[in-house]
Amino acid sequence: MGLYSALARPLLFRFPPEAAHRIGDYALRASPVWSALRPLLSTRDGRLATTVAGLKFPNPVGVAAGLDKDCRFLPGLLDIGFGFAAGGTVTRDARLGNARPRVLREPRRRALLNALGFPGDGLDAAERRLRGLSDDRRSRIMVSVSGTEIDDIAECHRRLQPLVAAVEVNVSSPNTAGLRTFHEPGNLSRLVEALVAQRDRPLFVKLPPWRSDEERDEIMPMAQASIDAGAAGLVIANTHPVEDARLAVGRGGLSGAPLFGDTARMVAEARNELGGDTALIACGGVGSADQVWRLLEAGASAVQLYTAFIYEGPGLPGRINRDLLKMMEAASVNGLPVHMA
Ligand SMILES: Cc1cc2nc3c(=O)[nH]c(=O)nc-3n(C[C@H](O)[C@H](O)[C@H](O)COP(=O)(O)O)c2cc1C
Fold it and tell me: Above 80 in pLDDT, residue 182?
């Protein structure tokens, strides 16, 4: 058992989830500490490298949007060994988000439920913080943007794009009233076209999950509309919408281990339906090298994770990457089974 599972997690889990998150946020902001620990935590090996929509990342294990909503500790996340990290979701104006309780832990199944609804400091603050990053960091940072109006999202995209390697547009949070308008492929096309018109970095669209044939028939046209409008890639997928009376708003998004099977299926289906040119980033329930390997084999070029990090702590990305190297050695191959799109 590592230091995190033995000591830090039991301590952090005594606090309500959002308070524990603030403590983790402070810890990860102590960037000299994490830079100093970099050689211990992160794993550098050319065989782990991947390319996603032309972006080169040193390893395929990324941070999913929402962990650092206000772009406060992205360098710390890179230093502990993630190959890349998505900041945000950033909205144009600062927002309080939904009523509490709005985050629940489900430790037995290594899951979280959240109904945050985009609380955050807004665009000005995110822009200010991202300006402080070095070019080396920027080449591994994406930022997620969202909103309910095309103009607001386009403003976030226009102002943040020069400061990062790529932008992800989130049209799939289940917790924000108004986002569903972009589930209609015509509206999504108009949004993606507006962003592509001002794009000079790859643009990713983060899709909602699909769990049935009916849902697939609803989401696949969103994927196709995004690509036709010029998106370079897709993030598959966001949290799974669920109802839960313990959340003040009565519903939220499920994340963590229970999602993995669906993530693997969705990536395989998307790769199958969309052909080879679209970059896919798999997201949902990832917590081990085995799982990363399976998702890369299914057609992803990289993965993002959030919930497993809450349960496993800062040793997780290094552990996954070391295990990936062991898997390569066991299979006598010199690189990841990665789809280069
Ligand atoms: C507390 C919490 C907040 C999140 N906030 C965002 C967000 O702001 N934007 C977004 O695109 N996804 C957000 N997500 C979804 C994650 O990025 C990810 O898609 C989802 O949690 C599945 O991955 P996981 O199982 O590795 O956590 C959030 C997830 C959690 C648990």
Answer: yes
